[in-house]
Design a protein that fits this description.
It is built from six helices and two strands. It is mostly helical and about 130 residues long. Strands 1-2 form a two-stranded antiparallel sheet.
C-alpha cells in the first residue's frame, strides 16, 4: 500500500499480508469512496471508529458475562487506545520472524530507539528460545 501522507510527513510503501490485501480489495471504490479511500480524510476518523468498535465489543462481553452469570471485569476494553495496537503489532511482527529492517518497513519507525520503544516481546516466547 502506498501512503502519500504519514505522521512524519514522508510518503512510503507499506508491505501488506495477502489477507489485508483481500480485505481492502473487497472495499472497492463507490459513490461514498470515489478515490478508493476506506476512511474519510478527517482528523479523528480512525479514533472514532475504533472507539465505537471497542464499545460494541465491551457491550457483547458484558452481555456474555451476564448470560453466564459471571461478573465482568470493569476494566476490560475500557482503556484500550488505537495507538496500543501499534505496540502490539510491532511486537508480533518480530514473533513472526521479521528482522529489524523488515519490521521497520511495516511500522514506519525511522530509528532503532523508537522501534525498541514499541516492541514488547513476550517473556514466555523468549524463555522457549532459551530452552
Amino acid at each position: 500500500m502506498f501512503l502519500r501522507e504519514t505522521k512524519n510527513g514522508e510518503s512510503r510503501e507499506v508491505p501488506l499480508s495477502t489477507r489485508a490485501v483481500g480485505i481492502l480489495r473487497e472495499l472497492r471504490p463507490d459513490q461514498d469512496r470515489p478515490h478508493g479511500r476506506v476512511l474519510k480524510k478527517q482528523p479523528g476518523t480512525i479514533t472514532a471508529a475504533f472507539r465505537r468498535s471497542c464499545d460494541i465489543a465491551r457491550m457483547k462481553y458484558v452481555a456474555e458475562c451476564e448470560a453466564k452469570d459471571i461478573e465482568p471485569d470493569p476494566d476490560f476494553l475500557t482503556n484500550l487506545r488505537w495507538h496500543d495496537l501499534r505496540h502490539e503489532a510491532t511486537s508480533r511482527l518480530f514473533e513472526k520472524g521479521l528482522d529489524v529492517m523488515e519490521a521497520a518497513s511495516v511500522t514506519g519507525h525511522k530509528t532503532l530507539a523508537m522501534l525498541k520503544r514499541y516492541t514488547h516481546p513476550r517473556a514466555k516466547n523468549i524463555a522457549k528460545k532459551l530452552g
